[in-house]
């Protein structure tokens, strides 16, 4: 399977060290992004071995609780019709570009599960991708560390898809993704516990 906003992107390497309970991030590379056709995004995914962060598609902000988990989805914030179409478009673009997907993991919130399902069909829930603002600070930090290690150490032939939330993505790559927007990362970890990866490109299916 396969995935748009991108264009030519300056690479960034994110590295984390722990000093007590304080995370210190180091950024190497330029801070600007150029608009373009998304060629860098798709080319990276066609190579395989990448991780894609996806912010869930557009939601209905008039109803539901953004922090709540509800197995019926009734009380949560859910995708609106535009969001459902957006999620389907993500999957269509992946398939159109022939991108191989090894695994799709989604936050347990309904809006992320629905985005994953509409885009890719099969997926698994990863509790650590839950909205960090809905969690106590220490739990949020622990979940982010698990996610960083997962990204850094991925070594599949295809690509790993992580469907999560804007605050989580912001903490991982210091980028503010729009609903349905994606970022492709290159894992650079070589040792257990490494949290090093390269931000290659961003892409959005939104017009």
Automatic annotation (TrEMBL):
Superkingdom of the source species: Bacteria
Alphabetical list of InterPro entries matching this protein: His_Pase_superF_clade-1, His_PPase_superfam
Name of this chain's protein: Histidine phosphatase family protein
Source organism (scientific name): Hydrogenovibrio thermophilus
Taxonomic placement: Bacteria, Pseudomonadati, Pseudomonadota, Gammaproteobacteria, Thiotrichales
């Amino acid at each position: 399977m396969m995935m748009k906003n991108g264009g030519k992107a300056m690479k960034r390497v994110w590295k984390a060290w722990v000093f007590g309970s304080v995370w210190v991030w180091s950024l190497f590379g330029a801070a600007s992004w150029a608009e373009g056709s998304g060629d860098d995004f798709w080319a990276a995914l066609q190579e395989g071995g990448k991780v894609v962060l996806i912010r869930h598609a557009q939601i209905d902000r008039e109803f539901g609780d953004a922090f709540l988990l509800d197995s019926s989805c009734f009380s949560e914030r859910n995708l609106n019709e535009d969001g459902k179409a957006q999620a389907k478009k993500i999957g269509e673009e992946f398939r159109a570009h022939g991108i191989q997907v090894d695994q799709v993991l989604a936050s347990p919130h309904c809006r992320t599960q629905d985005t994953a399902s509409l885009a890719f069909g099969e997926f698994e829930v990863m509790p650590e991708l839950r909205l960090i603002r809905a969690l106590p600070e220490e739990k949020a930090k622990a979940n982010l560390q698990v996610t960083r290690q997962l990204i850094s150490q991925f070594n599949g032939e295809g690509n790993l898809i992580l469907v999560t939330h804007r605050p989580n993505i912001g903490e991982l790559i210091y980028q503010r993704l729009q609903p349905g927007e994606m970022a492709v990362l290159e894992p650079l970890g070589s040792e257990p516990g490494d949290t090093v990866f390269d931000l290659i490109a961003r892409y959005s299916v939104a017009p």
